[in-house]
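Bug #77: duplicate submission created two jobs. Keeping one. Sequence:
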Amino acid sequence: MLLEEIASINPGLVLSRKRADETDNNIFTYTMLSLTDIDPSGYIKAGVFEEYKSKENIKQSFLTKKDDVIMRLTYPYTTLLIDSTFEDLIIPSSFAVIRIIDREFKPSYVAWFLNQSSIKQYIQSIQSGSVIGSTNKKVVGSIEIKKLQLEDQERLQEINRLKHKEKQLLEKLWEEKEKLYQYTTQQIIKGESKHD
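Kept job's structure:
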């Protein structure tokens, strides 16, 4: 099936059209998803989101909701799934929001599927003439997605969750080892200077 057959696909908000300036009477403040908030493996990095001031209320269709699949429209076309922790962020036009309408496809499976290297290669092959390496709604909608039983989709979701958790733990372990290395080398240097 084509992605456009199982989901609505829309670009994010063109920020310049709604950006407030100091002359505006009403200013609405939001937090915004940005390219730097996305980990290449398809997760939102923990941290502070950029603030966006708008001259009017932003439509709900441009704000993240639980189970939204968000795809970066520029290389490397990273895709992520929004959970309840990251609701109500503005989705800028550098992303597409994919909202699943076919209940036989789990949003987590669609996000995982779109993050596969074969899908990213497909997008690159379609965009081969483009210097910028960006894609659009039409190309995203033309992606053929394999239909799996819901149980298999759930198994893939769990495997992906465990992979992400393991990656986080390994990164934390590396950070701690780096601290130990720095401490140990500093202790050796201090010890050397005592013998001088």
